[in-house]
Amino acid sequence: MDILKLINNDNLLKWRRHFHMHPEVGFKEFETTAYIAQQIAAFDGIEVFRPTETGLIAVLHGGKPGRVVGLRADIDALPLTEEVDVPFKSQNPGVMHACGHDCHAAMLLGAMEALYKIKDELCGTVKFIFQHAEEVFPGGAVGLVASGLLDDVEAFYGCHVGAESACGTVGLAHGPLYANADSFEIDIQGRGAHAASPYLAIDPLLIGTEIVQALNFIVSRYVAPHDSAVVSVTVFQAGTAHNIIPDTAFIKGTARSFADDVRDLIERRINEVAQSICAAYGATCDVRYLRGYHSVINDEGLYHMLNELVPKTLPDVIIEWLEARMGGEDFSEYANVAPAFFSRIGAAPNGTKPLAHHPKFMVNEDALPIGCALYAAFAMQILGANA
Which residue intervals of 200-353 are DSSP H helices? Predict the structure, then answer.
């Protein structure tokens, strides 16, 4: 079956551009979800569930009983002011779809429309997951999974457009794909004094600089070379004036890893480093390590399935090996229910290629039918239909 012939490209463009013009940040996607529900109403018989305020799960029952598959698209935008001059530029000041979630939502709606046309041939059920708040911890996936509406799903699929990859490519990989995405905060309590009398102070700024330096040795000296990890300090705040040694200092950063034992090691070492350096200088500190999204681990069986499915579905598309990266993704939550797979849809525009989370982020809309077709093909393969 030629899935591309089932896809309405005009609707894909209409939907994507509507989402792009009306972006909303995580946990506030009220108009976005309402619009999605309005579009789904055109497909008679599709059930719509709203387990969270701004998340939506639509259920399409095939003509025959069978397995259950989950297709996920994130729908939230970012707090950025768009700098791309296009007719469908964001109309919400300070909010922009700078990560391609507008594309994901449109592609999933397109896959629903395509599968609806052949619903009588489907053996089983498709659950279309329009997930809110991927960009905002703890992530919208947590609430949708906790609702129990996905407990019967036997395989999940999600994807992300990539402006760094050529349109006409699809990135696939098995094993770790996205990292455990954690953060840490350190409050240092010293003793302030006049800057002319540093011997009377316990200088939290000086202590903080030693902590920052030591944190940067954790990966190089405690993590084995074959394990990947990152510890980055991103905030260091102390002091108010040139002649005052402050009482306190504040450090904040992120830690990324793939393996759980490495994650545990990093958390332990951050605490030990900060506490020991403060103790050495007579200061105290409060260390908070906040565990974020878990690592996304692509199922190997689904990888081999897709590696065969992509050429059959899209013979002109080139498969690329998808390198693991240290970004975070709450798609990992779905793997707690059933095997899950996440791919990248190449969507690089012509000319400059600003990456995601940039005010000039753009995608090549020719990627929309490719991503849409893979959503549909994955469902058809899991349900036993002729993809």
Answer: 204-215, 218-222, 260-281, 300-313
